[in-house]
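Quick start: what a row looks like.
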Amino acid sequence: MLTTQQLIDIEQLQKECESHDHVQLKLNWEMLRERTSDQMDYLQYEHGELVAFLGLYAFGSAVEVCGMVKPSERRKGYFQRLFDHAMEHIKRSGYKKILLNAPAGSDAAKSFLNKQGVKYAFSEHQMKW
């Protein structure tokens, strides 16, 4: 279960990343707020500041991975460490499909995904009214 302060920190980090990268991150806020355990969230704090976040969102036998790193703290291995811990949890939990969610306009996300050797599968589109 995430604390109120952790939720505030995640929201602040999201705003900073979205502003810097000109993207919209999908963090499934309803699920984050309703967590009953902290096994699905990975947070990296440095000097009291949240610098990286990774959340897992289970949908049946599939799990979606979403996350972000503070722009000034990228290329320091924070997200890779969180991702490695999350992958251990995913393997133990027996999920059949892993979906890595990344905004199309994020060069940092593309770089990370290329490094992982994953293949592009599909895009989601968001409709606004």
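That is the whole record. The beta strands are 41-46, 49-59, 62-69, 97-100. The first strand starts at residue 41 and ends at 46.
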